[in-house]
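Format is sequence with structure; example below:
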Amino acid sequence: MIGDIKNTAMQDDEYWMAAALAEAANAGRAGEVPVGAVLVRAGVMLAGAGNSPIALHDPTAHAEILALRAAGARVGNYRLKDCVLYVTLEPCAMCAVALVHARVARLVFGAADPRAGAAGSVFTLTDEARFNHRVAVTGGVLATECQVLLRDFFRARRADGGSDCGLA
């Protein structure tokens, strides 16, 4: 029985990560770094978003932040208790602390970010003892698919001579 519960949880994680990957692919097609996020509560997607800092002229328009904003507006509260955020790339410090402030219950990410990840790779802000909330973290869900999307995007950028996103 317990094995079945874990299997179902992993299937749910993969299902929602696939939705985040679709958001990431949309962001990539729009010329943004292909990171996508979806916020889920009780099996219902409250919001989904892809990175949009270039289009919105907003350095805070990461997929996670946009999903949190949209979900907060939808439920009428900035506290998003009992929610799970699925994101294709381990969140940066800004996004990790936003999850803490929003009281998100759980974070599931695909690819680790060894240069700026704040959910275990470089920092562990999701489990900081000095904060008044901690976010449970599961990493590596559909990691290969998430890594390939990012790798292919940056290869194409380099082949085109880079861009103004500063990441080429």
Remarks:
- The radius of gyration is 15 Å.
- The chain has a mean pLDDT of 92.
